[in-house]
Amino acid sequence: MASATVFRKDYIPPTHWVDSVYLEFDLHPQQTHVHSTLMIRPNEDRINNDLVLNGRDLDLIRIAIDGRELDRSEYTILPTGDIVLRGITENIKLEIENVINPQANSSLMGLYLSNGNFMTQCEAEGFRRITYYPDRPDVSAKFTVRINAPKSVCPVLLSNGNLIEEGELDGNWHYTCWEDPFPKPSYLFALVAGNLKCREEKFQLKNGKKALLQIWVEPRNLDKTEFALESLKRAIAWDEERFGLELDLERFMIVATDDFTMGAMENKGLNIFNSRCVLATPQVATDRDFARIESVIGHEYFHNWTGDRVTCRDWFQLTLKEGLTVFREQEFAADMLGDSTARAVKRIEDVRYLRDRQFPEDAGPMAHPIRPESYEEINNFYTTTVYEKGAEVIRMLQTLLGKDGFKRGLDLYIREHDGSCATCEDFLNAMAEANMRNLNQFKRWYSQAGTPHVRVRTHWDAQSATYAVTLTQFCPPSPGQDKKEPFFIPFDIALFNSKGTPIALQLQEETTAKGTSRVLELTDEEHTWVFVGVKEQPIPSLARNFSAPIIVDYNYTPEELVFLSQCDNDAFNRAQAMEELSLLCINEMVADFERGTRMVINPHYRNAFESMLTDKSVSPAFKAIALTLPSETRIAESQPMINPIAIRAAIRSLREQLGRQFSHVIMRVFDDNAPNPVYSPSAAEAGKRAMRAFCFELLLAGGNAKSLLRARQIFETSKNLTERLDALRIIVNSASPTKFTLLEAAEAEWRKEPLLINKWFTLQATATVPMDECPIVDVVQNLIERYPGYNVHNPNNVYSLVLAFCQNNLAEFHRPDGAGYKLWVEQVLKLDRINPQVSSRLARCLDNWRRYTPECSKLMFSALKYVYSQPNLSSDLKEVVGKALNNATH
Question: End of a domain among 416, 447, 478?
């Protein structure tokens, strides 16, 4: 059944509050009995006396008010499954009994089974699949939970808060009772039961108290939890030190499961994680996995205050907790790296992800502000806009207010809203009040969609030694928003003289120079700043460290980009200059391919590449990320019309030419970056491995036969997955028949480890070279249909194989014969009947269908139309496909 559109402007406070909840579960795979007791209190400011209890796919047994069981005529069951109790004007004790079927719950929302273990996922609207309840984030209550289960099947029984009682029951059953001392909305409820083991440690907090930290996993995974526990300890200590926020529970638990639609969930005191975000050893996790685990564990722990103690009034405010917490996670991860170069690499990675994933979203049919004004299905708005762009908006506040000012604002926000729900305005008002700043215009970042463009014009006057910088902002139309008001944009700038020395900056109205970089505050559509004392034509460094989520339009000459790639003291912009040069080169080669002429390397890019490759003053990690070519998605976004085949051909030719022309230098750099034999996921060691992988890729592309043998040797002998996976990926993307032998060897070794077999799927799904004349789309189809280890009910399998192919293998997915779109149609419709959230995520791969070549666009449009015409689509899928078809803006 299609969902009606929900509008932010229609928000109405709840008619009733819930003061306390007592839940009792009798766990059974097909028939779990749930008994809830709610202490209900009418809202004095209510608009009516109707109490709405949300429910989905529940078998109702009984309802009682103050001990009296209600007759069927005394309540209304709506077509949605919700129950309405009318005329509730006084405090009541409401008791409800219902039955649910966790085993049949393939949506993984509510209570479900994962490898025989009971798990929950309640955000955003999963609690209504457990029992009847006012399932909205502005209703908070204190929860007490009793769990009864067979001891042989479920020796471990967990829920939120503190364990207050446990004991034995008849029939070899047992129970635990948990009490959460803090009120919480229903989306933060969690229950876990099954055969689990834990790694635990008592951790001393800054206040002198000790908290029990536990990581719960299936027994086979216990040896993979040490890094997760250490990451949790670092996160707790960091939040105490940076923001003065302490752990408020006697114990904090993390549970890992293979079956999870999202990355992780911040349930109060009982976080539930996708196993790929918890489990790590050098043999099953790469350098990137280790970094992601630390970040995600930090993210979910930081929600304890920014999300749990202070939550959202409604789901339109989602970025209030997610944008803020992504920012906190990014700051934590950067602080853990310590070294300024490593911090810069992390910043570059974060922005590249934003540009690859969020910028296309801002330019497509699903474009929305970080706080949407409406939705049909809230699950579709757990997006890179709400999360990652939301984090950039928070970062701009820190840029404008300074670290101390930002902390003052956060302190005030938490002090005023602790234990309650809040809105984005509440957060901004606290920031403004604590710093005596007017942030009214800044609020437009919350209400306007799209990526602003800032055009930069400059003029140097030799006679007056002045340099004028004019910034003009424009934001393209997006669905429902044809015209945008000017944003408040912090624009960080520096100027360099011809020797590469930064120039002291003094504005016309100032009496002295103030440093060598300046954050200009662009609030008008256009504004000009004039710097004085500029004695020669400078080269500007613009939007340094990506000071705002914008697109900068400035016509750098290739010579200026080469200069910045060598001299800019802002590491982000130094790498940015390299990326701009590589985009210039690749786009020229794309044009050559489309004209049928020989593809040649732009000489300016070639010079910058050689300079960076041989520069011994920069770290291997920075060198690797600065030299890595832009993703195909990033290249596609830089072109007026996307031709995936031409992009792939240009990248392949560029790598081949670089590998041939610089083979001796590349080999020397490879040898110079041998990592320590004892594995460490540190930034320094990870940087060396990244540099060697980059060198390997170019050497093999350039036809270096020795590199193929070396790659095979590393795959067969290395003791860490990072090196092994890089070696195997490079071989798989070559024409060497060795790939088949090594893929078979990897499968035989990895088949029993889900973390590894998912990487095996992705290696093949993202391969850029056909497998023995077999198109990659056929490889993916064969794995779906014939490989026994692939499970369409497991989101990680789907993401690693199908989504990886459709999202990250542009040339193969957008084949001229339409085979990729046929696969997409089949999988989107199949998944929609199993897990609509996974289906709608896959559906997003055709968002920007209008931007492709006419041949591709026509086939994509037909695929979208076919899916939309099918009966009984979920609201998740129907919204995404419907908006794609209605996209007339781009």
Answer: 447
Residue 338: the pLDDT is 84
Q: Please identify every residue annotated as catalytic.
A: 300
pLDDT value at position 771? 84
Residue 344 located in a structural domain: yes
One domain, residues 424 and 460: no
Can you give the residue range of the structural domain that contains 91? 6-195
Clarify whether residues 12 and 134 are in a common domain: yes
721-732 vs 705-717: helix axis angle to the nearest 10? 140
Q: Look at residue 1 and tell me whether its pLDDT is greater than 80.
A: no
800-833: pLDDT as tens digits: 999 999 999 999 999 999 999 999 999 999 999 9
Domain-embedded: residue 729: no
Q: Find, among 231, 249, 382, 345, the residue nearest to 298 by Cα.
A: 231
The pair of structure tokens assigned to 242 is 């940076």
For helices 683-701 and 340-353, angle between their N-to-C axes, nearest 10 degrees: 60
199 membership: H or E segment, kind and range: strand 197-204
CA distance 294 to 331: 12
Question: Looking at the structure, do residues 470 and 436 belong to the same domain, yes or no?
Answer: no
Check the CA dihedral 783-785-786-787 and report its sign: positive
**Structure-block tokens of residue 665:** 């230098």
Q: Mean per-residue pLDDT for 394-410?
A: 99
User: Whole-model pTM above 0.85?
Assistant: yes
Q: Read off the amino acid at residue 482.
A: D
Say if residue 85 is in the same domain as residue 153: yes
pLDDT at 849 over 80: yes
Average pLDDT, the chain: 98
- Do the Cβ atoms of 479 and 470 come closer than 8 Å? no
Residue 477: CATH number of its domain: 2.60.40.1840
Say whether both 461 and 536 belong to one domain: yes
421 and 503 inside one domain: no
Amino acid at 518: R
Pick the last residue of a domain from 528, 548, 568: 548
Terminal CA-CA length for the chain: 29
pLDDT of 433 strictly over 90: yes
User: How far is CA 805 from its chain centroid?
Assistant: 18
Looking only at Cα atoms, what is the longest distance across the chain? Answer: 95
Residue 444, pLDDT above cutoff 60: yes
Work out the percent of the chain whose per-residue pLDDT is above 90. 98
Closest to 358 in 3D by CA, of 550, 645, 491: 550
Q: 514 lies in a domain?
A: yes
Q: Model confidence at 890, in pLDDT bands (50, 70, 90)?
A: very low
| pLDDT at position 770 | 86
Q: Which residue has the tokens 């990451």?
A: 231
How far apart, in whole angstroms, are the C-alpha atoms of residue 315 and residue 123? Answer: 10
pLDDT confidence of residue 212: 99
| Inter-residue contact 804 to 762 (CB < 8 Å) | yes
